[in-house]
Amino acid sequence: MTATPAVAPDLRSARLREWRSFARRFLRNPLGVIGLLIIVALLLCALFAPWLATHNPYQTSLPDRLSAPSAAYWLGADELGRDIYSRIIYGSRLTLLIVALVVVTSAPIGLIVGVVAGNYGGWIDRIFMRVTDVFLAIPKLLLALAFVAALGPGIVNAALAITLTAWPPYARLARAETLLIRNADYVNAVRLAGASEWRIMVLHIVPMCMSSVIVRMTFDMAGIILTAAGLGFIGLGAQPPLPEWGAMISTGRKFIFDQWWIATAPGFAIFIVSLGFNLLGDALRDLLDPHLRQRR
């Protein structure tokens, strides 16, 4: 009984050493650090948008319409005289909102479907995987267009439509991981001890799948941003006057030859943020994938 209190400090110390080792290995990947800095900058822009913006993103000024980049308008003004820089800063909030809505819904759905299918097998596996194959057979953007056309335009409907197209890869990944884990010795030992299948899935299989799911989530964030921008570009995403980056590109394409900055600035923002998520995803994959770690 006297040795029990010492277990908790030892466990905390081991976890602290593990996190320090993870941080050191991550810092040795310069591209991953760049990706992390881009994501941190995006979060800071969204958090401190009222202080970083130089103008009201919704305020129009017709005398200043189509103004070139200058001291007054750092990235120029759009066709209604609104400051493009301020709209990009506030647009980061919409981008993060869409990414958060899609990730927190699609990843759990795919994880549950994949773990249940892989653990039970049989007809449950066949039904779940055939449904997954149907969703995977249709291009994501086309399927999202169909859903958002049926639901109606809007930022929440766009996020829901992207969710319905984003969960199948998580299901396939979780199923593959579950097939490798379900007959492991420690899982069979827990099963022989009398644990139910749901307890085994929740407490033992799902945690083992999380590293792969986290890496997949990081990679998918770039695709979510591009899909949301595509929906906004054709008018099925966030509606005016919201400063959504895809919608800003759509309005700026009419002036692309003479006032190129209207479409270029939000397009560059999409490019930088997507690059940041991809670089961060590459770094996390190198750190969390046990097969890649064994080769080094």
Topology (SSEs and partners):
Layout (H helix, E strand, L loop, with lengths): L6 H21 L2 H18 L1 H4 L31 H37 L1 H16 L2 H12 L3 H27 L3 H8 L4 H37 L11 H8 L8 H28 L1 H6 L1
Structure description:
Helices cover 75% and strands 0% of the residues. It is mainly alpha-helical and 296 residues long. Helix 2 (30-47) packs across helix 11 (261-288) and helix 4 (84-120) packs parallel to helix 7 (155-181). The longest helix has 37 residues, at 84-120. The two termini are 43 Å apart.
The CATH class is Mainly Alpha
Amino-to-carboxy terminus distance: 43 Å
Tally of contiguous helical segments: 12
Q: What percentage of amino acids are in beta strands?
A: under 5%
Number of strands: 0
- Helices and strands, in order, run as HHHHHHHHHHHH
Spans where pLDDT lies below 50 across 5 or more residues: none
Structural class: mainly alpha
Q: What is the 3D form?
A: globular
Radius of gyration: 23 Å
CATH fold category name:
MetI-like fold
**pLDDT average, as an integer?**
86
Query: Fraction of residues in helices?
Result: over 70%
Q: Largest sheet at a glance?
A: none
Number of domains: 1
- What is the CATH superfamily classification? MetI-like
Question: Architecture, CATH level 2?
Answer: Orthogonal Bundle
